[in-house]
Amino acid sequence: MENREHFLAEMETYQFEELDTEKERKVPAWWNTKKGFMTWLMDGISLPGATKQQTRPDDFFGQTHTVYDYIIHYCNQTQVDEVDLYKNAAIPRSTFSKIRSMPDNNYNPSKYPTIVCLALAMKLGKEDIQIFMNIAGYHLSNSIKCDRVVMYCVEHGVYQVERVNDYLEDYVGKRMLISA
Asked: Using the 8-state DSSP alphabet, how is residue 16 labeled?
């Protein structure tokens, strides 16, 4: 994926396996660690963002969770500071603040750039990014060129927002993500 021509040639035939919303989902690998999300649920700990809820795409006892629930759990499990996460995602502090207080402000973050940038900053894998998108109420599709570029980059370990933006510009014709 080093040169532009190679990338553009590969994108012509690239397809990814879409998450089937009717089938059972897997949880991210870090989710079920010793202090995993299941423990958090069973202990009844309440995190901010618990009222504006999206359905989890996996088997969390029918519970629902928000984008912020996912982010805070990711930060706890990977020892990443929230500030570092939103800075790596190249999203403004004000946008992250809205995500943090979603139940109070009825904020719905956009797929492009906010959710995609956060997913890239978390360096989510193929399945994990689709799970995260589903929690946010979105889906990655082969029929959407931008989604194909994002999944291609994820599969090839390209998580830098600026570099993904360059590939989006090359293939789609515009930069869809926030510039760092």
From this structure: -
Do 26 and 58 touch, CB atoms closer than 8 A? yes
The number of distinct structural domains making up the chain is 1
Q: Do you find a cis peptide bond into 109, omega within 30 degrees of 0? A: no
CB 138 within 8 A of CB 94: no
**Has residue 178 been placed in a domain?**
no
pLDDT tens digit sequence for 24-39: 444 555 454 444 444 4
d(CA 23, CA 36): 23
Domain extent at residue 62: 4-172
In a domain, 79, yes or no: yes
Return d(Cα 67, Cα 84) in angstroms, integer: 17
